[in-house]
Amino acid sequence: MVDFTLTDEQIALREMAHDFAEKEIRPVAWEFDKDGTWPAAILEKAWELGLMNSHIPEEYGGPGVSYLEGCLIEEELSWGCSGIATSIGANGLATAPLALAGSEELKAQYLGMLTEAPKFAAFCLTEPDAGSDVSGMRTTATRKGDKWVINGSKCFITNGGYADFFTVYAKTDKEKGHRGISAFIVPKDDTVTVDKKEDKLGQRASNTATITFNDTEIPLGNLIGEENKGFKIAMMTLDRTRPGVAAMATGIARAAFEFATSYSKERVQFGVPIAMHQGIQFMIADMATKVHLSRLAAWQSAVLLDQGKRNTIESSHAKRYAADSAMEVTTDAVQVYGGYGFIKDYPVEKLMRDAKIMQLYEGTSQIQRLVIARETLLPRRIEEPTAV
Ligand code: CAA
């Protein structure tokens, strides 16, 4: 049966997330965008309500929502402000590898840490010379007695400046390319430095930093899963988080669509509201279609995960389509506002700036197309979604 009807609990969850976005995020979103400040009080409230760490299973103190429910939360929070939503959601990305492949001890310690107090984790994959090409990373992890020693720099790290621990990918065998990468949990200590906070075009309320590990020592048990299986863990993580990114893009697009629709009914030109002009109506119609299809694609790619199925191509379809649509819808929203859309007194230019990152982070739109092309032309047989 194909049925996207939400249960009463799911509707209530979505309403709770919407209410939070409307009351706690929206009223201050443009201020946080202007100043680029860390929204500490909002994050703490989101943590208290269980909107942060929503994927963490109940046995580790989280609400353990499904991937579909995660999408409901992400869309609403991003409708409020996708920068603040990124800060709220980043623990989910950082802990997905742990949930997928970590030992019981690691899960109990680090998932438990996040649910016991409003703390942060950061996902450290990207490096200055290894963005889309993950296997080109240079960070190393070397075994020394009963420790791993981590050295290297990671950039564009969401929540990096506030993280209590990091999920770090590092080369454990430099000769083996993607088969020589492992994943680790690295707690913050004095050897971990926050080198740079980025001054960004959009999503300015989220913290993005460069993090350097300088002979950082961690216990051998902080290896996530098996040695040299880190690349696969990273790919499987992104399969699990891209539906949520697609939902975030849907939230941004929906916000822009709503602003543009109501403005088009108020703004009078040639003696009638501009919504009466077919040129505007067609733009509004295309925006509505893009929001609708983005949501469906996000939900479908999430439901596959909830059914225990592999969703690599579907999560790339969803992430690519929703991100590109968010860019188009927000650009059109600025167009509907005309010259006013270009100035900061009106809400839509922020949304256009925020939308841009959706085409970049968690795999660019070009990388999603690469995945889609490979999955279409050379479908891989990765049968078990949980096999790492
Ligand atoms: N699930 C399981 N295994 C997978 C997989 C998947 N979805 N995709 C690939 N693999 C496996 C392959 O089967 C292959 O396995 P073998 O070793 O057995 O052969 C292995 O991984 C290598 O696969 P590829 O040959 O496809 O690897 P590649 O080097 O060509 O890279 C890529 C593929 C799709 C380009 C990948 O590197 C990629 O996704 N790049 C984008 C990275 C990305 O999204 N970065 C974003 C960083 S996170 C972020 O932005 C967060 C933030 O804080 C803002």
Q: What attributes does this structure have?
A:
388 residues; alpha+beta; Butyryl-Coa Dehydrogenase, subunit A, domain 1; Butyryl-CoA Dehydrogenase, subunit A, domain 2; Butyryl-CoA Dehydrogenase, subunit A, domain 3; 3 domains; 4-stranded mixed beta sheet; 4-stranded antiparallel beta sheet; 52% helix; globular; binds acetoacetyl-coenzyme A
Describe the protein's architecture and organization.
The protein is of the alpha+beta class. It has 3 domains: 8-116, Butyryl-Coa Dehydrogenase, subunit A, domain 1 (Orthogonal Bundle); 121-228, Butyryl-CoA Dehydrogenase, subunit A, domain 2, CATH 2.40.110; 231-377, Butyryl-CoA Dehydrogenase, subunit A, domain 3 (Up-down Bundle). It is built from 10 helices and 10 strands. The strands form 3 sheets. Strands 1-4-5-8 form a 4-stranded mixed sheet. A 4-stranded antiparallel sheet has the order 2-3-7-6, with helices on one face. A two-stranded antiparallel sheet has the order 9-10. It is globular and about 80 Å long. The structure holds acetoacetyl-coenzyme A (CAA). Residues 93, 123, 125-126, 132, 134-135, 156-158, 178-179, 231-232, 235-236, 238-239, 312, 361-363, 367, 370-371, 380, 382 line the site of acetoacetyl-coenzyme A. Residues 228-375 form the Acyl-CoA dehydrogenase/oxidase C-terminal domain.
Largest sheet, order of strands side by side? 1-4-5-8
One letter per element, helices H and strands E, the order comes to: HHHHHEEEEEEEEHEEHHHH
What compounds sit in this structure? Answer: acetoacetyl-coenzyme A
The CATH homologous superfamily of the largest domain corresponds to Butyryl-CoA Dehydrogenase, subunit A, domain 3
The geometry reads as globular
CATH topology of the largest domain: Butyryl-CoA Dehydrogenase, subunit A, domain 3
The major sheet is characterized as: 4 strands, mixed
Using only C-alpha atoms, the radius of gyration works out to 21 Å
By DSSP, the count of extended strands is 10
Number of domains: 3
Query: How many helix segments?
Result: 10
End-to-end separation in angstroms reads 30 Å
Strand-pairing-aware structural class: alpha+beta
Mean pLDDT: 96
| Multimer state | single chain
| Low-pLDDT runs | none
Q: What share of the residues lie within helices? A: 40-55%
Beta-strand content bin = 15-25%
Question: Which CATH architecture of the largest domain?
Answer: Up-down Bundle
CATH class of the largest domain: Mainly Alpha
